[in-house]
Amino acid sequence: MSVEFIFRLIGMILFGILGVYVGERFAEFSDPRNLLYYQILVGLVGALAGLILTPFLTTRPVKALRVVLSRVSVQTLLGGLLGLMAGLILAALLAFPLSLLPEPFGNILPFIGALLLSYIGVMVFIMRQNEIFSLFRLNLSARSSGEPPAADHSRTILLDTSVIIDGRIADIARTGFLMGSLLIPRFVLNELQFIADSPDSLRRQRGRRGMEVLAQLQKNATLPVRISDIDVEGVREVDDKLVILARQLRAPILTNDYNLNRVAELQGVAVLNVNELANAVKSILLPGEALNVNIIQEGKEPGQGVGYLDDGTMVVVEDGRDHINRNVFVIVTKVLQTAAGRMIFARLAEKHEIEEMNR
Fold first, then answer.
1. pLDDT in tens, 136-185
2. Is 146 a member of any domain?
3. Residue 104 sits in which domain range?
4. Is residue 171 located within the same domain as residue 249?
5. CA separation for the pair 343, 331 (Å, rounded)
6. Chain centroid offset of residue 355 CA
7. Helix/strand/coil (H/E/C) assignment for every residue in 250-276
8. Which residues of the chain have pLDDT under 50?
9. Residue 6, CB half-sphere, CA atoms under 13 Å: how many?
10. Are 330 and 293 in contact (CB under 8 A)?
11. Which residues, in sequence order, are bridge partners of residue 273?
12. CATH code for position 231
């Protein structure tokens, strides 16, 4: 027997009794001789109304409240509670002077002040919850150790499936440039496991690589990794769940997925893109600078040769076709930034330029 059915029975009984009482009062004003008729009729209507309406007054609001609370982080709930307490304390301090005002202000303003200050307190503490709890953590760490903490683990970073499979996140985490803790929701892990069990050999290999990257991340002592069962109800797509969860937790998403990057930015979610990081740390060369490059293939245009720097930057060398599989000195003529990365156009260095470089 479900809880909703029990509440329906209780509601049917209570509304039935209320209907009998209302029917009795109605009969007293209209026709006292038909008292029993009105009691039975209105009582049956009340019982039927209680049977139908009770879930909408009891169990359904509770379920909706549970869904809303499940989507809110513990930190947000605690911040809202602290803000409510602060607002009520301020309202209590202002209640006495406000009550001394002439009527009706003395009776109304204390109540309005309590509502307004409670709302302001909740909103302020929720909006600044990260800074407030970070301050508490810093104070506790300073008191316990006498020194500021070595790393700030208050920041939570959500990981996308694509960035786990990519593998570069393990190297980035090892360097210590990322601050905070990595959070991997269960639905991301389930998607990664689904890819690892795929009948397609390529997808299966990518999924197993992602599992190995997760194992490396968990062994990394500098950056904590948490796998959480937190979920977003009513949404099926993993990317949509990530965006909604990031908004609820006020956390950035670490990804290399272009589409997820754009969707998250449109919804006001901070994104840490590994590809943008890789492009940002590539070596910067200006026109006129010289470098040594190994030409490995032909270019699209006649006579062009193509080589690559250690960071993967493509170098297109004019008249470099005859120097394939050779290391040559080139002079940068133009640097082009594209969506795929940075491209360098260069020409072969003259003999006197090579002599100057060797001096």
1. 665 554 455 444 444 444 578 899 999 999 888 888 888 878 888 888 98
2. no
3. 71-129
4. yes
5. 14
6. 56
7. CCCEEECCHHHHHHHHHCCCCEEEHHH
8. 141-142, 145-153
9. 4
10. yes
11. 255
12. 3.40.50.1010
